[in-house]
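Reading is simple: the token line describes the chain's fold. The lines below illustrate.

. . .
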Amino acid sequence: MRKTKLYRFSLGSLTFQEARWTRTRLLISGFLLGIVIFFSLFAINHYYYNDVFGLGFIQNNSLVNENRVLQNQLQYLTQRIDVIQKQLNFLGNKGNELRLLTDLPKLDEDLQKAGIGGTDERVDFTSSSNVNTMLNNLLATANQAERELRLQTKSYEAVGTAYDQNKVRFAHFPAIKPMDGFYNQNGFGMRMHPILGYVRKHEGIDIDNEIGTPIYASAEGTIEFTGHKGGYGLTLEINHGFSFRTLYGHLSKILVHEGQKVKRGELIAHCGNTGLSNAPHLHYEVRINGVAQNPTDYFFDDVSAKDFQN
């Protein structure tokens, strides 16, 4: 007869083991499901590239790239402004050359560098110290360039004004010999008078030529006197402004009238032999504030009256 085995089960132990296994499986399944969900969200977030779930990965990567691009652009702009600064320095040197040509004082180097003055305070634009340093350096350089540009603009305006004024002044400067002919370089000053026979100051020069030789205005001005004037004979005087006056003596004929405005190189009279004169010639004087000057000091030998005639 076969024996029957008897098995005893503890219901309490079995229940505990089954519950623990079930909980472990749930934890593992939840963990795996969480991983799947996380990577799914990351993939979706990356696919749309706009951080729709607010995870911040794409945004952070974008900010890093933007920061890198920003620094590169700042370096590029700094180099461009450095080039502009060098160009401003070049313009400053050229401006000083023009100032000297127009009889204006040079701008010293300290004034050019300082511009109109001013200080640049450091500003914290971002949390990045490198970006802050680059932005502040760029801002300071731009402010400096702006100040120098304003200074150079004013300087060039002053040069332009001085040039226009000098053009007017030079037009009234007695720069040409008023008549063709021969003259003595030492004819101005103390000398023996050829008719009166004693030493006296000769306040002009004598240019020798035939009667009727054309005489031209040596500069722009206004006819101030025409007529006979003692030993000068028939005389003409021009007020050129800027303290200049010229006198033309011993004339045979005057072609202008008092109050008339004349240009440099304009025909005004003819050579003669009137007054205290022993031969046809032009007595020519240049005066500044009434003081006689040596006319030859004002002649430009390479310029003649014909250069100013149409």
Notes: The helical segments are 11-48, 57-101, 109-114, 129-171. The longest strand covers residues 221-228.
